[in-house]
Amino acid sequence: xxxxxxxxxxxxxxxxxxxxxxxxxxxxxxxxxxxxxxxxxxxxxxxxxxxxxxxxxxxxxxxxxxxxxxxxxxxxxxxxxxxxxxxxxxxxxxxxxxxxxxxxxxxxxxxxxxxxxxxxxxxxxxxxxxxxxxxxxxxxxxxxxxxxxxxxxxxxxxxxxxxxxxxxxxxxxxxxxxxxxxxxxxxxxxxxxxxxxxxxxxxxxxxxxxxxxxxxxxxxxxxxxxxxxxxxxxxxxxxxxxxxxxxxxxxxxxxxxxxxxxxxxxxxxxxxxxxxxxxxxxxxxxxxxxxxxxxxxxxxxxxxxxxxx
Length: 309
Fold this sequence. Notes:
Elements: H1 21-32, H2 38-41, E1 43-46, E2 52-57, E3 79-85, E4 88-97, H3 98-102, H4 106-133, E5 152-153, E6 159-160, H5 172-184, E7 200-203, H6 205-216, E8 237-240, E9 250-253, E10 261-273, H7 276-279, E11 284-297, E12 303-306
Parallel strand pairs: 1-10, 7-8
Antiparallel strand pairs: 2-3, 4-11, 5-6, 7-9, 9-12, 10-11
Helix pairs in contact: 1-4
């Protein structure tokens, strides 16, 4: 895609009643230059209301043997824990003075527009990664327990965990243990093992190359032995984010369709420019971008975190 060119002729209607199309083109082009990481980790849903509510359903009982001519057993599904997401509005803007237009400062206007787009994308990414940054404390699942905990509660009274009992830095042995945990710890009310498969290994960029070596090497990493690297067959994909505040922390995630990680979009990123009536008193107009959404987690299944040693 060729970059939009900010020509003086394109700004002839800058003080018109509608937003200048070239600014929108610049804004969208900059957004496109920075693909979202969060969309790889979270399930994206939309709402047209001021809140978005989710509710779990208790697991069904395990099947029992049915003899010839015997009636089936029927159960009534029960509602489990619920959670409410409330979208919040985020926004920022800048002013464009009449003098900037008169003096041909169009490159600066274009740069400010691009910077605003970059800020919008970064704000979304930071808020998404804070779910993981705060997951060992203030970020809670629908059972009101920290996202990464050893004591998630089930309506039946059972528990499951989403972190190891002892933290460890990313290594062949700690990842192997985490993969084993992933297959066994996610259980339902009736004792059903969810048998969820991790898809993503989320790390800080300082761990990205090592993480790729762990899951991509033909031979077992961190040893002189020539054993085959069984981690290579797990089908993991490494995703890194500089917005993870703990460089030692790492996470295993199932496919977003299987986890409770959600981004609830009420209104996507949009831009607006004020008309001449607003700029009359100051000889300036205002250009802004905004969006409304909620980011968080309802159920804690398929999400496993480790703070590192």
